[in-house]
Amino acid sequence: GHGVGRKMHEDPEMPNYGKRGNGKKFKDGMVVAIEPMINMGTKSIRQLKDGWTILTADGKPSAHFEHDVALIDGKPRLLSTFKYIYEALGIESNEEDEFLF
Fold first, then answer.
1. Which residues is 55 bridged to in the sheet?
2. How far is C-alpha 46 from the geometric centre of its chain's CA atoms?
């Protein structure tokens, strides 16, 4: 993930890979986008010439999701929600409720 502010992909960069316990620490007041890329195949990627589009190197299906999260008083607070997607698909879910700001 990355910091959220006035520009795209601001600092701090918060990688969503690596060895557990060795990454950057979230600090109170930080606002970050957490954006995992879930791939059916390889973790290797390639970027298209447009400088934006990312594909898996093996061309297998993948999905990229993002949630914006603020850490306030030591607790994560969602600044984004997937509720509208759930509603459009007719899915009932309250999994985000305790984290919504």
1. 46
2. 19
Residue pLDDT, tens place only, 58-98: 988 888 888 888 999 999 898 888 888 888 999 998 888 88
Question: How far is the C-alpha of 25 from the C-alpha of 46, rounded, in Å?
Answer: 28
In angstroms, the Cα distances linking 91 to 5, 40, 64, 97 are 31, 24, 20, 14
Structure tokens at 41: 């195949």
Segment (H or E) for 88: helix 83-89
**This prediction's pTM:** 0.67
Helix, coil or strand: residue 21: coil
In this structure, are residues 34 and 69 in contact, taking their beta carbons and an 8 Å threshold? Answer: yes
